[in-house]
Amino acid sequence: MTRPSSVQDLPRVQLLTQRALATVERFMHIQAASGIVLLVAACIAMIWANTAFAPSYHALWHMPLSIGLGELSFTQPLHFWINDVLMTVFFLVVGMEVRREIHEGSLSNPRQAMLPIAAAAGGVMAPAIIYMAMNLGSPGQNGWAIPTATDIAFAVGLLALLGRSVPSNVRIFLLALAIIDDVVAILIIALFYSDGLNMGGFLVAGVGVLMVLALQQMGIGTAFAYVIPGVVLWLGLLMTGAHPTLAGVVLGMMTPVVPVRLRERPMDMLLRIVADLTGRGSSVCSDTDQMCARLRELRLAQRELMPPVVRVQTALHPWVAFGIMPIFALANAGITLDGIELDVDGAQWVAIGVIAGLVMGKPLGIVGATWLMVRLGLCTMPAGVSWAGIWLLGLFAGVGFTMSIFIGMLAFNDPNLLGAAKLGVLLGSVAAAVLGLIFGMILVRRNKQIIQPTPV
């Protein structure tokens, strides 16, 4: 009698490979890990751009890259493909996060959503006011929106570094606030940084939207079927003069929050297929065609166990967090410090305004708006969230990084002003992160002292 094979019977190389892959998979779903990778990419960019290899850094991102079919060709610098194409996938994930929050998360209840919405509004207005107070009437005033953004990956990752001592509701509040902040950033990009809109492009974008709706009505659930409509929508927005990454937001918000309707529930289908494959069902698979049909049904049932908005977001998260975002940071965080003249065209006030907006404006605006809503009796503080926790969220919300750099690139064509804005974003984000971690560690230590029993 032969003993059935077990995990121990597998070759040692295969066991080690499986364990390594499982470790990598766990690592890629940790928010703190994605923030660390993003920080490493930014540091590499800064070092690369300020050494003897700086010319190669700038030459790489200006290298032309083309796609074509026959005589049709589309050529753009590598920088364009990263900022305008890859970042569309990032905004797709953001759009799906917003869609989920509206459907079943912290934004599904209007009264529950009122407090993070007000806090996010305060966190946008206060930095913008501080920045404009320093740059009104100068060439740098167009960068008013740079310090209003929050980097979700960094903010949530930094909070995760403080461990489980931080109440879960604090993390939920920060996530809701950061998502609303991203929505505001998207609206700012669409309204204030998309000049000279071409109405003809909206017709093309509309065709893309209609294609998405048609596929959804047909019950097409595979994500790959929506690539072509997504490309049509992206091209339409590019033609309008609006930033084409907004196509990702539109697609994300249109992603269904319920699985495709099937004649049979996915779980019932899975149980029936397993019974057929094991010979316990009503129709036993006796030939290759029947086996292939059951396997196709199995893949369909497996796919439709989760709503498309969850399935696609889960699949894209590692690629965005550990691929697209670090590449964006590598391509945009490289500031050649020797090339920035802070005493020209008010560049120093651009940098100072961004730093002050992120480090001071964000926490003051978030805490002030929260206090006002609670004071007026319009909202109540979430359970487990103290005023110290709100200050902690305000400090971490000052880490703008990705979104702030992105807005800065839309705001300024002048390389000197753009360099000053990027420098302000990096310094302000680092200062906000350090202050948040120090304040957070003090809170965690104080909470542990309160919780721990006094020794007898």
Automatic annotation (TrEMBL):
<feature type="transmembrane region" description="Helical">
    <location>
        <begin position="223"/>
        <end position="239"/>
    </location>
</feature>
<feature type="transmembrane region" description="Helical">
    <location>
        <begin position="423"/>
        <end position="444"/>
    </location>
</feature>
<feature type="transmembrane region" description="Helical">
    <location>
        <begin position="199"/>
        <end position="216"/>
    </location>
</feature>
<keyword id="KW-1133">Transmembrane helix</keyword>
<feature type="transmembrane region" description="Helical">
    <location>
        <begin position="36"/>
        <end position="58"/>
    </location>
</feature>
<comment type="similarity">
    <text>Belongs to the NhaA Na(+)/H(+) (TC 2.A.33) antiporter family.</text>
</comment>
<feature type="transmembrane region" description="Helical">
    <location>
        <begin position="172"/>
        <end position="193"/>
    </location>
</feature>
<dbReference type="InterPro" id="IPR004670">
    <property type="entry name" value="NhaA"/>
</dbReference>
<dbReference type="InterPro" id="IPR023171">
    <property type="entry name" value="Na/H_antiporter_dom_sf"/>
</dbReference>
<feature type="transmembrane region" description="Helical">
    <location>
        <begin position="245"/>
        <end position="262"/>
    </location>
</feature>
<keyword id="KW-0739">Sodium transport</keyword>
<keyword id="KW-0812">Transmembrane</keyword>
<feature type="transmembrane region" description="Helical">
    <location>
        <begin position="386"/>
        <end position="411"/>
    </location>
</feature>
<feature type="transmembrane region" description="Helical">
    <location>
        <begin position="144"/>
        <end position="163"/>
    </location>
</feature>
<comment type="function">
    <text>Na(+)/H(+) antiporter that extrudes sodium in exchange for external protons.</text>
</comment>
<dbReference type="GO" id="GO:0015385">
    <property type="term" value="F:sodium:proton antiporter activity"/>
</dbReference>
<feature type="transmembrane region" description="Helical">
    <location>
        <begin position="316"/>
        <end position="337"/>
    </location>
</feature>
<keyword id="KW-0406">Ion transport</keyword>
<feature type="transmembrane region" description="Helical">
    <location>
        <begin position="349"/>
        <end position="374"/>
    </location>
</feature>
<keyword id="KW-0813">Transport</keyword>
<dbReference type="Pfam" id="PF06965">
    <property type="entry name" value="Na_H_antiport_1"/>
</dbReference>
<feature type="transmembrane region" description="Helical">
    <location>
        <begin position="78"/>
        <end position="96"/>
    </location>
</feature>
<dbReference type="GO" id="GO:0006885">
    <property type="term" value="P:regulation of pH"/>
</dbReference>
<keyword id="KW-0915">Sodium</keyword>
<feature type="transmembrane region" description="Helical">
    <location>
        <begin position="117"/>
        <end position="138"/>
    </location>
</feature>
<keyword id="KW-0050">Antiport</keyword>
<keyword id="KW-1003">Cell membrane</keyword>
<keyword id="KW-0472">Membrane</keyword>
<dbReference type="GO" id="GO:0005886">
    <property type="term" value="C:plasma membrane"/>
</dbReference>
<protein>
    <recommendedName>
        <fullName>Na(+)/H(+) antiporter NhaA</fullName>
    </recommendedName>
</protein>
